[in-house]
AguA protein
Amino acid sequence: VKALVAAKDRPRLSRLLEGLENIEVLEAEADDLWVRDSGPVFTVSEAGVLRAVKFNFNGWGQKQRHSLDNQLAEKIADLAGVELLTSSLVLEGGGIE
């Protein structure tokens, strides 16, 4: 399990998770807690290559601050060590149909 946490909250989360195995705490700043809405979508090519896709996130129609959220896909791809592909599509909440 990988948990994203703001730098200021890392000490507290580390204390709460003390003694638990298989949990990696990673730092990433965000405006909102819904990484589902602004984080990348991971894909696997036919050759088995894992990549992350960054979609445009506009804060639910410019209703919320989202400058930090807009950087999450890059941060997560970097932490995962995978190539980041950028899409011109707006996608929020994993609303792929």
